[in-house]
């Protein structure tokens, strides 16, 4: 492969990596921000569903009531949601490294993939302990699976980029 072709494919790979990383970062930030104002969100969701006779509707209303009662008597517990949101934002910042230099910061992608995989056993174990319905745990697991997709694409592209850099240098 000629030098110009390698350069072209490297630029194309970096562009694709950055696009997928921006998608992941934005999703992580949005996901984190949803941890703020949970009671209000659950009130709206419960009102939107309007059916407290379905499993889905009953669960949303139960969660809303639990949050409302907890916030009325123990508002300081909501501080945990604030820290959850903060953690999402901090983790999103870590992914700025691969935006700048994907090969050098490949470890961040590996970390993200491991974290996405860890969601699955965590959701099943802690969900069972906290009596979260199975269908809700599956929704939680889907976040890990969805996050794994762009990170795996980035990981593969970074591996290709590494090989192209090795070929260019040899």
How is this structure best described in words?
The protein is an all-alpha fold and 170 residues long. It has a domain at 3-35 and 85-169. 84% of the residues lie in helices and 0% in strands. It has helices at 3-33, 38-49, 55-73, 79-94, 96-100, 106-129, 134-169. The longest helix is centred in the C-terminal third of the chain and has 36 residues, at 134-169. It is elongated.
| Run of helices and strands | HHHHHHH
Q: Which range does the strand content fall in?
A: under 5%
Rg computed from alpha carbons, rounded to a whole number of angstroms = 21 Å
Q: How many strand units?
A: 0
The profile of the biggest β sheet is: none
Name the structural class: mainly alpha
Give the proportion of residues in helices: over 70%
Average pLDDT, rounded to a whole number, is 93
Question: Which spans of ≥5 residues are poorly predicted at pLDDT below 50?
Answer: none
**Number of helical regions:** 7
Shape: elongated
The span between the termini is: 12 Å
Quick recap of the structure?
With 170 residues, the protein is an all-alpha fold. The chain has helices spanning 3-33, 38-49, 55-73, 79-94, 96-100, 106-129, 134-169.
Helices, strands, pairings?
Layout: H1 3-33, H2 38-49, H3 55-73, H4 79-94, H5 96-100, H6 106-129, H7 134-169
Helix pairs in contact: 1-4, 1-7, 2-3, 6-7
Task: Kindly list the characteristics that best describe this protein.
7 helices; single chain; 170 residues; mainly alpha
């Amino acid at each position: 492969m000629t030098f110009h072709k390698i350069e072209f494919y490297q630029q194309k790979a970096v562009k694709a990596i950055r696009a997928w990383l921006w998608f992941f970062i934005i999703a992580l930030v949005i996901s984190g921000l949803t941890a703020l104002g949970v009671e209000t969100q659950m009130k709206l969701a419960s009102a939107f569903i309007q059916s407290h006779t379905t499993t889905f509707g009953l669960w949303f209303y139960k969660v809303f009531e639990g949050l409302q009662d907890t916030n009325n008597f123990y508002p300081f517990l909501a501080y945990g949601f604030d820290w959850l949101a903060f953690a999402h934002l901090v983790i999103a910042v870590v992914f700025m490294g691969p935006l700048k230099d994907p090969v050098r910061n490949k470890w961040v992608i590996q970390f993200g993939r491991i974290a996405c995989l860890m969601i699955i056993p965590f959701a099943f174990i802690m969900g069972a302990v906290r009596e979260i319905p199975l269908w809700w745990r599956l929704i939680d697991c889907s976040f890990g699976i969805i996050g794994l997709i762009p990170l795996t694409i980035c990981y593969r592209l970074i591996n290709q980029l590494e090989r192209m850099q090795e070929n260019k240098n040899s």
